[in-house]
Specification:
Blueprint lengths: L3 H4 L1 H4 L13 E6 L4 E8 L4 E8 L1 H7 L4 H23 L8 E7 L3 H18 L3 E5 H7 L11 E6 L4 E8 L2 E7 L5 H11 L13 H9 L24 H18 L10 H30 L8 E5 L6 H13 L3 E3 L3 H4 L4 H13 L20 E2 L1 H7 L11
Parallel strand pairs: 1-4, 4-5, 6-9, 8-11, 9-10
Antiparallel strand pairs: 1-2, 2-3, 6-7, 7-8
Helix pairs in contact: 4-5, 6-13, 7-8, 7-9, 8-10, 9-10, 10-11
Bound molecules: 5'-O-[(R)-(carboxyoxy)(hydroxy)phosphoryl]adenosine and zinc ion.
Length: 402
């Protein structure tokens, strides 16, 4: 089998694990869970043979948030081209695919529907098995395409829709230690960026909220504003970001009043606000992750030798957050793994890879997809958060020297 473009895909990204040989089993992955239409063909050893992504970021930035009907319309317009591009780049004929894997949960109902309906059409056309994918499980296992991270490991997933800590025990076996009680950190950063009118900032207008906050924070002094850490009295691994957003909004209103600024104008202290909010989000994530590590140690949930923390999801692209988490892992003898930013944000590669993981484990390879439904809400694994609460572990102070 000749895969001229595919063979070097790994090397192009700098992830080659030696001489990349394409193996026989190939999965086409499709993701339309939120606002990106992604597709990729990946082989059993993690070679990315072809991939394509259409991002709706620009449209949603202009609209001031994701409008589900608009997201659906854009998925419908682009899915055909995105899938075709991924297949064309791979040099693989659809008949050579082993299976088609598609995100069916969790996500925006209208967006999931487009991906599932399109996939069913392909499955019927090419008579291929279908592998339904849990989007968060796919984020959690992407790292295994790049590194030999064995089960069980601890995983922190932080994106625009999720904030959760879990123990990954197997391909479809997770223990949920904690999750957000209100909004996700990416959502908070997006909303703060919007309230700061960063789309009017010449350097930030094409960036997502999280990217813009990270960019501005580098030039800011976080000490200019004092923000209270969320949930410091709660000795568990749950998260909360809505109160923090409220605190930041109050600061912005006060500053606008003091400066005589209108909403829509960029405040002179915008960099300092960005630095303060980024730091508080980071400290909250680091504290809960530290507690999760202590809980796993106490309960013997992870191997004693070389335990690992994996961090993924769009917010995990943030260097400041990665640095803080590396301080936590170093202090506790854990290895830290973060996929490169391109694989942290939504993409078709992680879905194709999860399809490979499921194929290898023989989980959910479906030959008649008639009964398959998309599920906008879907928990991750077995809920262990009550056990974490009962343990009520205190976390020692750790200086995040960032
Ligand atoms: O995983 P993702 O692509 O989509 C889902 O939400 O599922 O994550 C997108 C989120 C957005 O909220 C965006 O603002 C955030 O990830 N994000 C970041 C950074 N890049 C993207 N947050 C913080 N720092 C970044 N560098
Ligand atoms: Zn995601």
């Amino acid at each position: 089998m000749v895969r001229a473009q595919g063979v070097c895909a790994r090397a192009v990204y700098g992830w080659a694990r030696g001489a990349a040989q394409c193996s026989a089993r190939l999965v086409l992955g499709i993701d339309t869970s939120c606002d990106d239409t992604g597709a990729a063909v990946v082989d059993e050893t993690g070679n990315i043979l072809g991939e394509a992504l259409h991002s709706q970021k620009g449209t949603h930035l202009k609209a001031g948030g994701i409008i589900p009907t608009v997201a659906q319309k854009l998925h419908k317009e682009h899915i055909e081209n995105v899938v075709q591009e991924a297949i064309d780049k791979s040099g693989v004929s659809p008949t050579e695919l082993t299976a088609i894997a598609t995100t069916i949960k969790p996500g925006l109902a209208l967006s999931l529907k487009v991906g599932l309906e399109y996939s069913i059409k392909l499955i019927e056309q090419y008579k291929k098995p279908f592998i339904p994918i849990h989007h968060m499980e796919a984020h959690a296992l992407t790292v295994r395409m790049l590194h030999m991270v064995e089960f069980p490991f601890l995983v922190l997933l932080v994106s625009g829709g999720h904030s959760l800590l879990a123990v990954a025990r197997g391909v479809s076996d997770f223990l949920l230690l904690g999750q957000t009680l209100d909004e996700a950190p990416g959502d908070t950063l997006d909303k703060v960026a919007r309230r700061l009118s960063l789309k009017n900032h010449p350097a930030c207008h094409t960036m997502s909220g999280g990217e813009a906050i990270e960019y501005l924070a580098k030039m800011g002094n976080r000490m200019q504003f004092e923000l209270t850490q969320p949930m410091s009295q709660h000795l568990d691994c749950d998260f909360s970001f809505a109160g923090l957003r409220n605190q930041v909004n109050q600061i912005i209103i006060k500053k606008e009043r003091e400066e005589g600024f209108q909403m829509g104008q960029i405040l002179p202290c915008v960099n300092d606000i960005a630095a303060a909010v980024q730091h508080t989000v980071t400290a909250h994530l680091a504290k809960r992750t530290h507690r999760a590590i202590l809980f796993c140690k106490k309960e013997g949930l992870l191997p004693q030798s070389n335990p690992a923390l994996v961090v993924s999801g769009g917010v995990a692209s943030n260097e400041y957050i990665r640095k803080a988490l590396s301080i936590v892992t170093e202090a506790n003898g854990f290895s830290l793994y973060c996929p490169p930013p391109k694989l942290c944000t939504d993409n078709g590669i992680m879905i194709a890879w999860n399809g490979i993981e499921r194929l290898r484990a023989g989980i959910d390879v479906i030959h008649n997809p008639k009964g398959i439904r998309y599920e906008p809400k879907a928990p991750l694994g077995i809920d262990f958060s009550e056990r974490v609460k009962i343990a009520a572990l205190k976390v020692p102070y750790l200086k995040l020297k960032t």
